Amino acid sequence: MSILACCVQGFEWDGTPTGRVGKLANNPAYISGDNKDAAVLIVSDILGWTLPNTRLLADHYAREANVTVYVPDFFAGEVLPMEPINKGRFHEVDLGGFLTRNSRENREPEIIECTRALRAQYKKVAAAGFCYGGWACLRLGAKEHQPALVDCIVIGQPSHVVEKDIDEVAVPVQILAPETDMLYTDDLKLHTFVTLQKTGVPFDYHHFPGVEHGCLVRGDETKEGEREAMVRGKTAAIGWIKQYLFAD
Distance between CA atoms of 7 and 45, rounded to whole angstroms? Predict the structure, then answer.
């Protein structure tokens, strides 16, 4: 897997998460909300399940969509150090080793296992993935899973996606795409449009002009356009989730 500084750079948001820590299948998980029928799995970016921003976003989903949200640890307890990351000293962080240990091949089985656990417990299940989590949610929505593991997916500023992931998605998919993104390239964006129109999969594409990869989870609210992008992305995802988890 390749990685760029944009995958880890960004800002930590103010606020205190209000959820709890529990388990999903064999994985520790941050859990927010108490709906017994509808759940959302969030597959985080490489900053992981403890990042306050991701937990705060989970709280918003739980509260505004009336769902129970799970943010599992998919990195076997490994957490990238925030101090050098926040100060831009990326050379001090073993990103290559981290991604090797947490490759698609290594992590996909447990991501699927956690989703199966949700499907066994809840009537309706959605999945949302940001950056690293983008490929995972596309895989959860793949046509090979019968019956479907999830009812819909949201992918925001996805990374590590290949064309086959898009070719095989078979559930309604929402795409949140910053204008500048060296990981979700213009070619992949075009392939998404062309492929999903051919396959007939319901999709909802949101273009975020003037912002870069990372802004939807780690944007700076003091930076022009990034706060608006974060709010718009959150609101769009909640609308998509409600549409497919609570449709008659």
Answer: 8
